[in-house]
């Protein structure tokens, strides 16, 4: 009874207070609220983050100046990098001498080889030298013997070896498939590219004809597109190409900015350049399958027309028609018709013509005439079809190649280019490739290669090295300090490593290596760039433009906008340019010297891969301890970060590190850590001991998930103590990078899903000159903080929100879209939720500005907003009398956030802010208006001007590089989870005892349940654990762990409802099966209107054809209303970063729900076409040339057929002859 009276009293007080606040909501002083929030944040900074304690602590340490001797540092790094390069090439030289000895002196041929292969480690392969004279053994195992000797000759650098290989040119000329096609986890693209660039070719003139007719299924189309894109990408500026796609009609790609409704009669062979190559690849990517039968005669006719119309352009040069097709015939007389056209053309032609065909096939597919037809076309086998032809010395016999998978594509391209190669020309110089992605494993590698030119053969020796190992000293030189940094370039001036060069994304098509002028914004950049590329070594002093805020006063003198920067550089073995830089802006650097350990009962104790040494408890879903903090050493803490990343951090290894770190005598040998790490760990132990005691005593700890601190080197300590998996880079996390941008301010990070199971959390961080300290609070605590000053935020007509300095939402009542059908997978922007406010604040140029930066990691230009954190006024409607909607926004002092209030006394019309709901592509990349509302988005970044002069805005390479984007590699790392929930909770909290919404709000591990699993409001909302109720939904099946604590007090309504749903689903499935098996089967045999005979291949029933499948069930799907927790999603889920050239939708992003709960679902058209339009079960209609050709322009958007609805239709026709 006493409890119920207290609850009633608190409820009445709250309702009265809320009603009073709502009544005077219009008179709310938002500046006063901002000051109060600032005081709350200041209390968190002082008490929970312990900033005064940290500053006092570090001031008590002895400091020594950190001498930055650029000359000494660059020599040290130079010697290490040159030593690694020398080791790799020494191995190649040893292998080269062995091959010359075997092939020339012993006259034994060697086969191509690659190790490792078949997922086996061949590093221990030993060949007995007693067999050295046995020709049979040498031919079979000689290549592996050579590779084994190569690796052993590399010394310690062999640990960074990913793979090594030998390619024999004489062998591959007689192979149908790549000699490495059986090797698993092997990306052959880079391997064959290294081989191709060493050959010398004539100018290549290629008429590429792609078959996208009805006989090509989805898998074959993918292989065809891969082949076409790889072919185009490997062409040089000396080459020309024309592209034609063929089905029942033809389409040619025109290098023109305007889409021509009436195409010209001339099909040109266009000279290759970067922009044209890109446009071709974009067009090929959007290519989709057609339903019509392939008209082979039309294909070869149009191909020959291109050759004849470009006669003067390709005079005295060889031209190739490359026909990529499955080769399925519409009639058995079609091959003869095709060859007759070819014979007629070659009879009087003075052009050196060769025809190559490429058969897209799969080994398990039975073929009859297809390959024979393509082979006859390539070889121009006229005698087989009794075709009279006149001998022509310029007529050259071609070859039919076969491609059965995407992995075989690079090898086939080498075979195609071999036709243009000059006899016995092969570059044998040593070479190091640009860093490239290995598509099979996702590793960034560089290839060391060397050629061998012998009398009867040429060989390529190659060794692929992890780029992270080769350049680790340069990558981790700065340790996130701006006073000094390093960068690496090649001799052509392409930037390979730079602090502003974010790690390249494996999802981008290629890595765009920009020049130094895109990264170093100095006053005499062109002079500096010229010296870098011409002088082998040197020193250069210049001034850099200060990165001033957008609202910096224009009255500042020039000296305040510039500061001195000093460069020193040297060449690395004639392959690279290594440069170091120091900034005078940050003064002389210093570091703490031998700080003592904290003297306490927990002296020198850390949780570091030794959970069993401490009393464990469960902190949400993590096995943790509250006795000590945990220590995590990122790879940047080690002298060799690459070696550390390859080393398993187990208990034994951890004991060695801890013994060294806790050694006060400093006599133990360094196990491989950087010199400053021991001092940083010691200093951080004081900070974490303070945070530990504060967490155990603070009243705010029930809203704080964890506390942690990280040094600039990457030493991370965290409480409660938990164990991390390897791979985390704390210095690349958003809270670390953003706090560095806002030093002397408390930085708030927009909500994100906690890896430890606490739901959505907000991070508050503060950066000092020695470390960054942070706390994670629950998302609900941010609302609780707002309500303590603005209870009116609960009113339906009033919307309160918090945003950061880029406009991303810290809090908004509609941020967690509870009615949505998809989880929140990225930060939400104010434009998404308050489009009307966003349109209006763009008029305040002193408050907000739209910015651009280049992200060279994924080749995009990022558009984002920058808000003025120095703004001291209150922002209101720019247009007076904005109907019934008013807003006020002001900055929260000493933070990076803003508070806003929107008061809507009536329903207001939606405003338009173009935002892609498919990806991050901007609506219009050709222009950007400051006052035009749009979501943060991205445009493609190109290294040359586009083929259209009008399209130039997307190619602004003068934009500053993006430095605030997060390294995605650190996002995948999470904690070691406690999936069984057998441990006692570290901080017991009874969610069930919280009877009021405000009491439950923000508590760690608790959620206020308002909806059932169907999205309906509960009659009696209640407080539950986050494992049971996620995002307000009481649904056990969608909780992110799927586990309920054993002390749960809930009724078994969940299992009962689950059983009922399961029975319903079972009955539905039985009904569907009954309907499917009792439906009458329709005859799916059609005859062409132009042929009377039946092809034998038409009776080859496809193995994958299911004659009982019912595609009608695929037409309509109802979107699920259940809010699935992101914790249930696959760990490998990632939003694609590749720009899709499809017709993507755009949303106004108003508060209204953007999704359609009942919609026409996209259908996998290919799966239906493979059944209905399979060549094995139907005969396609013959081609028709009456229709004009289709012309595709590079800026024309082709709507994919996946946006169509496939409706089964039965066509009745008279099958009798008339």
UniProtKB/TrEMBL annotation:
A Pfam family the protein falls into: VWA
Regions annotated as coiled coil: none
Residues in VWFA domain copies: 205-420
UniProt GO MF annotations: voltage-gated calcium channel activity
Keyword Transmembrane helix annotated: yes
SUPFAM superfamilies per record: vWA-like (SSF53300)
GO cellular component labels: voltage-gated calcium channel complex
Domain of life, source organism: Eukaryota
Record's keyword annotation contains Membrane: yes
Transmembrane segments: 1053-1074
Keywords: Membrane, Transmembrane, Transmembrane helix
Entry-linked PROSITE patterns: VWFA (PS50234)
Listed name of the protein: VWFA domain-containing protein
Organism field: Exocentrus adspersus
């Amino acid at each position: 009874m006493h409890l119920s009276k207290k609850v009633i009293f608190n409820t009445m007080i709250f309702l009265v207070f809320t009603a009073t606040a709502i009544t005077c909501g219009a008179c709310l002083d938002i500046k006063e609220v901002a000051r109060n929030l600032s005081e709350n944040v200041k209390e968190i900074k002082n008490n929970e983050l312990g900033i005064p304690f940290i500053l006092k602590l570090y001031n008590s340490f002895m400091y020594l100046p950190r001498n930055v001797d650029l000359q000494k540092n660059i020599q040290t790094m130079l010697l290490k990098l040159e030593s690694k390069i020398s080791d790799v090439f020494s191995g190649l030289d040893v292998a080269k001498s062995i091959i010359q000895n075997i092939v020339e002196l012993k006259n034994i041929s060697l086969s191509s080889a690659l190790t490792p292969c078949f997922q086996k480690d061949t590093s221990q392969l030993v060949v007995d030298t007693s067999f050295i004279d046995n020709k049979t053994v040498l031919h079979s195992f000689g290549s592996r013997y050579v590779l084994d000797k190569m690796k052993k000759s590399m010394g310690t650098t062999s640990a960074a070896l990913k793979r090594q290989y030998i390619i024999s040119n004489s062998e591959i000329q007689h192979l149908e498939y790549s000699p490495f096609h059986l090797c698993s986890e092997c990306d052959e693209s880079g391997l064959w590219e290294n081989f191709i660039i060493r050959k010398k070719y004539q100018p290549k003139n290629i008429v590429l004809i792609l078959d996208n007719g009805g006989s090509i299924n989805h898998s074959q189309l993918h292989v065809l597109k891969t082949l076409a894109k790889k072919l185009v990408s490997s062409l040089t500026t000396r080459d020309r190409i024309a592209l034609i796609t063929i089905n029942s009609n033809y389409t040619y790609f025109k290098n023109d900015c305007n889409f021509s409704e009436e195409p010209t009669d001339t099909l040109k062979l266009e000279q290759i350049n970067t922009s044209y190559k890109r446009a071709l690849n974009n067009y090929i990517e959007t290519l989709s399958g057609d339903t019509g039968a392939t008209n082979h005669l039309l294909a070869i006719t149009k191909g020959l027309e291109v050759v004849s119309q470009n006669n003067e352009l390709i005079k005295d040069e060889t031209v190739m028609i490359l026909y990529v097709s499955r080769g399925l015939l519409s009639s058995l007389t079609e091959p003869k018709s095709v060859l007759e056209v070819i014979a007629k053309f070659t009879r009087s032609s003075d052009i050196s013509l060769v025809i190559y065909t490429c058969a897209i096939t799969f080994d398990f597919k039975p073929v009859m005439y297809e390959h024979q037809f393509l082979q006859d076309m390539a070889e121009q086998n006229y005698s087989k079809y009794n075709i009279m032809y006149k001998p022509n010395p310029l007529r050259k016999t071609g070859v039919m190649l076969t491609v059965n998978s995407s992995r075989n594509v690079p090898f086939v391209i080498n075979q195609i280019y071999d036709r243009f190669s000059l006899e016995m020309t092969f570059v044998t110089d040593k070479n190091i490739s640009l860093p490239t992605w290995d598509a099979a494993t996702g590793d960034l590698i560089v290839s060391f290669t060397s050629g061998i030119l012998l009398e009867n053969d040429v060989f390529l020796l190659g060794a692929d090295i992890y780029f992270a190992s080769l350049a680790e000293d340069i990558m981790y030189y700065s340790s996130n300090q701006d006073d000094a940094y390093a960068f690496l370039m090649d001799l052509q001036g392409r930037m390979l490593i730079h602090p502003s060069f974010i790690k390249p994304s494996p999802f981008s098509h290629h890595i765009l290596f920009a020049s130094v002028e895109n990264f170093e914004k100095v006053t005499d950049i062109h002079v500096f760039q010229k010296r870098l590329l011409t002088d082998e070594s040197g020193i250069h002093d210049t001034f850099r433009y200060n990165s001033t805020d957008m609202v910096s006063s224009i009255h500042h003198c020039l000296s305040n906008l510039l500061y001195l920067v000093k460069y020193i550089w040297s060449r690395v073995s004639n392959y690279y340019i290594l440069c170091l830089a120091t900034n005078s802006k940050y003064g002389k650097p210093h570091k703490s010297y031998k700080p003592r350990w904290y003297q306490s009962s927990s002296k020198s104790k850390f949780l570091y891969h030794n959970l069993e040494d401490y009393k464990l408890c469960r902190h949400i879903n993590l096995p943790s301890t509250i006795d000590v903090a945990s220590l995590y050493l990122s790879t940047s803490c080690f002298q060799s970060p690459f070696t550390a990343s390859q080393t398993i951090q187990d208990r034994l290894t951890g004991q060695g590190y801890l013994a060294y770190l806790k050694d006060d005598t400093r006599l133990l040998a360094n196990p491989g850590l950087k010199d400053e790490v021991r001092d940083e760990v010691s200093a951080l132990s004081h900070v974490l001991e303070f945070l530990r005691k504060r967490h155990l005593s603070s009243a705010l700890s029930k809203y704080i998930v964890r506390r942690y601190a990280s040094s600039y080197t990457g030493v991370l300590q965290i409480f409660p103590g938990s164990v991390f998996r390897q791979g985390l880079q704390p210095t690349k996390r958003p809270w670390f990078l953003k706090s560095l941008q806002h030093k002397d301010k408390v930085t708030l990070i927009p909500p994100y899903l906690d890896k430890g199971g606490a739901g959505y959390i907000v991070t508050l961080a503060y950066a000092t000159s020695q470390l960054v300290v942070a706390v994670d609070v629950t998302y609900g605590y941010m609302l609780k903080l707002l309500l303590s000053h603005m209870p009116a935020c609960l009113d339906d007509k009033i919307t309160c929100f918090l945003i950061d300095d880029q406009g991303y939402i810290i809090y908004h009542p509609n941020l967690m879209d509870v009615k949505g059908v998809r989880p929140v997978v990225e930060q939400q922007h104010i434009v998404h939720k308050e489009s009307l406010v966003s349109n209006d604040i763009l008029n305040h140029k002193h408050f907000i500005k739209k910015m651009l930066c280049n992200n060279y990691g994924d080749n995009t230009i990022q558009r984002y907003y920058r808000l003025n954190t120095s703004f001291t006024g209150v922002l209101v409607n720019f247009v007076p009398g904005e109907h019934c909607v008013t807003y006020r926004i002001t900055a929260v002092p000493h933070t990076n956030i803003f508070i806003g209030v929107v008061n809507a006394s009536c329903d207001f019309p939606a405003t338009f802010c173009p935002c892609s709901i498919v990806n991050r592509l901007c609506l219009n990349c050709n222009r950007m208006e400051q006052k035009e509302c749009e979501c943060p988005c991205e445009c493609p970044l190109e290294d040359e001007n586009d083929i259209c002069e009008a399209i130039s805005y997307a190619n602004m390479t003068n934009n500053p590089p993006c430095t605030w984007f997060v390294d995605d590699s650190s996002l995948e790392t999470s904690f070691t989870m406690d999936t069984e929930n057998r441990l006692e909770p570290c901080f017991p909290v009874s969610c069930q005892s919280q009877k009021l919404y405000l009491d439950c709000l923000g508590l760690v591990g608790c959620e206020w349940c308002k909806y059932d699993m169907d999205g309906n409001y509960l009659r009696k909302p209640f407080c539950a654990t986050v494992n049971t109720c996620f995002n307000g939904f009481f649904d056990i099946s969608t909780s992110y762990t799927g586990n309920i604590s054993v002390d749960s007090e809930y009724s078994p309504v969940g299992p009962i409802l689950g059983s009922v749903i399961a029975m319903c689903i079972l009955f539905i499935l039985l009904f569907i099966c009954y309907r499917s098996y009792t439906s009458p089967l329709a005859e799916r045999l059609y005859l062409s209107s132009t042929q009377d005979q039946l092809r034998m291949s038409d009776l080859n029933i496809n193995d994958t054809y299911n004659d009982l499948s019912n595609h009608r069930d695929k037409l309509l799907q109802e979107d699920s209303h259940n809010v699935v927790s992101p914790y249930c999603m696959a760990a490998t889920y990632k939003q694609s970063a590749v720009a899709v050239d499809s017709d993507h939708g755009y949303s106004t992003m108003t508060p209204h729900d953007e999704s359609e709960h009942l919609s026409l679902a996209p259908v996998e058209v290919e799966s239906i076409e493979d059944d209905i339009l399979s060549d094995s079960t139907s005969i396609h209609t013959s081609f028709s040339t009456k229709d004009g050709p289709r012309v595709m322009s590079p800026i024309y958007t082709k709507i994919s057929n996946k946006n169509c609805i496939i409706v089964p239709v039965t066509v009745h026709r008279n099958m009798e002859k008339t």
